[in-house]
Amino acid sequence: MMRTVRVVFARTFGRLAPSPTAAVAVAGFLALSGGFFTRALMRGDGGATPAAAVWALSAVPFLPILAALVTMRLIADERASGRLDLVLTAPVQERDFVLGKFLAAYAETVIALGFYLLVPLMALKMCAPALADDLTFASFLPAVFALLMQAALWCATGLLASACFRYAAAAAFASLLLMLALPHAIFWAATAWSPVLRAKVASMPFEAHVVDMATGLVSFSALAFYASLTLFALFAATRAVASKRLRGRAGRAPRAATAAVAMLAFVFACMVVAFAMRLDFSFELPMHSGGARASARTCQLLAEAHGDMRITCFLSRQAPEFRAVSRLLRGLETTARRVGGARLAVDYVDPRWELGRALDLVRAGAEEGSLVFRRGNRRITLPLRDLFPASTNVAHAVGADALFAGESVCASALQRLSLPASREVLYWTTGHGEASFDSYDPMYGLSDIARDLRRDGYSLEKLDLSSAPSVPGDCAVLVVAGAREPFARMETARLEGWLRGGGRLLVLAAPGPNAGVGALLSDMGVKILPYTVISPRTFSGTDVVARDFAEHAITRPLVGSTVLFEAPVPLAPSAAAQAEGTSFTELVRTDEAAWGESEPATRPWTRDATTEPAGPLAIAVALERGAGVARDVALRPTRIVVVGDATFVANGALAQRANANRDVFLNSLAWLAGLDALTAPRTPGSTVATGMDRARWMRFGVAGAVVLPLVVLALGLVAAFRRGRLS
Amino acid sequence: MLEVRNISFSWGRTRLLDDVSFAVAPGEVAVIAGANGAGKTSLMKVMAGLCMPSGGTVAADGVDIFANPLRYRRMMGYLPENAPADPDMTVRAYLRYRANLRGEMSKKIRHRVAEAIDLCGLDEHAGEFIGSLSFGLRKRVALADALLLRPRFLLLDDLLAGLDPVTREMFGRILAAISSIAAVVVSGHEIDELARWATKFYVIKEGRALGAKTASGAKMLLGLAPPRAEGGAS
Which of A60, A316, B5, B29 is the most buried (most CB within 10 A)? Predict the structure, then answer.
């Protein structure tokens, strides 16, 4: 057996590898997958999906196409040319012949995946040094394994199609029908027709399997799915080849019997998959025992907390959210063990099976589909819908574009459990064109950040200074979020009085030196310059990417992160900042290539060196007055943080890309409110935070989606030429 | 000894072969003749195991084609009608591949390939790609493939079709040489030429295999020439 397999494999691979068709197919696969990987990584930058999962997901749609192109000729050509008759008259088992062909196609696909692996391990590593530690072969191994399983299935399916048709094009078409159109049609029809199925199956299993595997979760049902269907396809291909002996009228009955056997084999394969799904057995790979990675903030929280905490996941294991949530909880559990501090226990209550415990939870006020955090007698119930941003539907929660907020939300719940039960009040001024925290506008509303603040234990109140006699005494921080109209003299006076008495102010500055509280800020020590910052380090052209952070309580933990500003205004210290006892810190600065543009509406932007300030420019500053003054240490210091971007934490900005905007804002509030300890970054340990600017993204995209495919194409064509296949 | 016993074969509703029986012993060359569409190629394919007969069986040296197909095929050399071969391979590489595929022992392969190349006069073309050869040369390659492992019986479908006289003569010599050790069944229309090496003839007519001792007898059965005194149909 092995000898025949080896001979057929050697012959087929020797013919396939140097063929122009294979070279074009592999190059096309690399170009498309590389392009999609670049795009997905850009869109999911900073998300919770690991780079390996994004990498594997980007190849999932194109792997069937590659397999179809590689396999389409393997048997169809033999059949059309009559060579199949020579094989069938040789003392060879059809099974060995098909297996040899399959291994050759599989080897070609594995080579293509090997080249594709160079994209993250070489190109991305060079362009994103921040990710270098994560981009190891070992970390990609589970994702590679997932793709190898899919490749095996697609190659076997392609071979089956090739065995059934005389023409390669027909075989390729049938392959694509079997691999892409049919599964998607079944998926969409089933989920559209049945709400039960829709609830159970969130995304195409091919994608879910890859994400699970890439994050270290290996389920028996996935292994059974690929193994049984691959074996079925190979068996059916073998029978299809063998049925070529059944020409003639007498062969009708055996052909029908062959078809019936193939159908039974398919039913058997489906039953194996169903049985494996029913068993619901899964295990975690040792290298990924941490599940989802926890952020520095969560690590800090868990390290500083003590006692026993318990998280109960009240959710059906078949719910589409379950995979993402269980991965997150496993990550939290492992992190707690690693960092010491609180002892965190996680348990799962499936309402389908554990009726008694489910009833207890319902009586305690928890609804199905929620997480219950407990510490002693304190309990926080968190609906799972809070873990998924409103803009992200559940179906995509496992995908590369998901902005799964579970880690941050759970950390907030843990924080509330570990802190005394008191709530700081944040007042937000109104009446000057400010953005509102209860606005759900997808671009300019502040609802997302408001939700985060409430989870962190803050209360939010509105304040109209024109009617209020003064700033309320319980005001921890006053927020002026993008006021465009100048404050009235009386309002300014009230505000100034409150500030000089140790008030805390956070300003998201709109353009214009006198907009909002610009005049007051100038008196306090911060000057808003009449320019718009332009920088070559940009994603969209108008935004500015900043990575230069000051050594300050707010920004200290954010080194290596990226902050995005949309057409920001530069800030500078005014004369008042020179006063004794005042410290002025430039929290975030642009790079040296940036400058302040006086006419941002006129393109192209060019710097006038005589009038316009050159970078680095401060675009977020912190000012403290009265701290550490020896003559009156009891005096509460005044603290002001100004960010030169009115939309810095608007819904659109937070959803746009991976950035540490949320961290800068929340850390600023924590510092202003005196909660300096809780300032570690909330984004999970730089999972996919590439820190790349536009130029680097371009370089990476060109390397991965253009240069590598062209090199592979050239190598393939040279090999074909040398073998006389192009002559 | 190749024995065809009561073979019947239908294609759709057409009954091509009806209770066909004959036997060919080593040293014999049997020619299968017949009009176009009579069922010659179908019979060859049934004997090669590529078509499913509705009745009867084929056996070689007592090995039944259905009971022990691998052993049966191991004894067979088969040259299909269109002489397919892999155009991307050189002649020598192709023959090596075929010998490997058919399970020949590794240490014998070189010798077997050299022997087949020599026998079929392919020495000058052994390093050439098959795709660049003429039809006649490709047919020689296919014949070399059929002869490669010294088969116990040879099935040569439409052997002389499309060949020039020189190649036909060469194929005849090869037939004569190989028939001493193998039973040979050749199909074709070239009765006169094949008669030089044939020991018996079978004419497929209306599904039946009619035996003839001579070429003229076979021609008579085909309705081509009047019967002569020295030969006749049986």
Answer: B29
| pTM greater than 0.80 | no
Of A669, A649, A448, A658, the C-alpha closest to A547 is A658
* Rg (chain B; Cα; Å): 18
Considering the domain architecture, whether residues A221 and A242 belong to the same structural domain is answered as: yes
Q: Which of A461, A389, A384, A295 is nearest to A651 (CA)?
A: A389
Please tell me the distance from the alpha carbon of residue B86 to that of residue B128, in angstroms, as a whole number: 12
pLDDT tens column, A246-296: 877 777 888 899 899 999 999 998 888 888 877 767 776 665 544 456 677
- Give the tens place of pLDDT for each residue, A190-224: 777 776 666 555 566 788 788 778 877 788 888 99
Residue A682 banded pLDDT, cuts 50, 70, 90? low
Q: What number is the average pLDDT over the span B132-158? A: 91
More confident residue, A291 or B68: B68
Identity of the residue numbered A296: A
Query: Among the residues of A17-62, which ranges form H helices?
Result: 20-43, 51-59
Return d(Cα A16, Cα A25) in angstroms, integer: 11
Do A636 and A539 lie in one domain? The reply is yes
Residue type at B218 in one-letter notation: A
Q: In this predicted model, which residue has the larger pLDDT, A232 or A185?
A: A232
CA–CA dist A156, A179 (Å, integer):
11
Give the orientation angle of helix A63-71 with respect to helix A94-118, to 10 degrees. Answer: 140
Q: Which residues of A134-169 are buried (b: 16+ CB within 10 A; e: fewer)?
A: bbeeebbbbbbbbbebbbbbbbbbbbbbbbbbeebe
**Residue A309 belongs to what domain range?**
294-411
Which CATH number does the domain housing residue A400 bear? 3.40.30.10
Mind telling me how many Å the CA of A246 is from chain B's nearest CA? 5
Residue A287 in domain: no
Q: For residue B47, what is the nearest residue in chain A, using CA coordinates?
A: A89
- pLDDT at residue A92 greater than cutoff 50: yes
3-state helix, strand, coil in chain A (%, to 5): 50, 15, 35
Question: Which residues, at least 6 apart from A260, have a Cβ–Cβ distance to it below 8 Å?
Answer: none
Predicted confidence band of residue A692 (pLDDT cuts 50, 70, 90): confident
- Measured on CA atoms in the order A170, A174, A179, A184, is the torsion positive or negative? positive
Cross-chain residue pair A248–B101, CB shorter than 8 Å? no
DSSP-based three-state secondary structure for A314 = strand
Q: Is the domain B1-75+151-234 a CATH 3.40.50.720 member?
A: no
Verify that A56 and A191 share a domain, yes or no.
yes
Whether A359 and A455 share a structural domain: no
CA angle in degrees (0–180, nearest 5) for A585-A682-A443: 85
CA distance A216 to chain B (A): 42
Does A286 fall in a domain?
A: no
Please judge whether B103 and A91 are an interchain contact, meaning their C-beta atoms are less than 8 angstroms apart: yes
Q: Give the number of domains in chain A.
A: 3
Mean pLDDT of A438-449: 86
Task: List CB contacts of B167: < 8 A, sequence separation 6 or more.
Answer: B136, B139, B140
Ranges assigned E (strand) in A122-219:
217-219
Helix, strand or coil, per DSSP, at residue A414: helix
Q: Which residue, of A362, A381, A411, is where some domain finishes?
A: A411
Q: What residue type is assigned to position B101 of the chain?
A: L
Name every residue in A having a CB less than 8 A away from some CB of B: 3-4, 7-8, 11, 15, 81-83, 85-93, 244-251, 254, 723-725
Same domain, residue pair A267 and A311: no
Residue A83's closest chain B neighbor by CA? B84
Helix (H, G, I), strand (E, B) or coil at A335: helix
Question: Sign of dihedral through CA atoms B160, B164, B165, B167?
Answer: negative
Segment A617-630 mean pLDDT? 77
Domain segments of chain B as ranges: 1-75+151-234, 85-149
Residue A683 has pLDDT above 60, yes or no: no
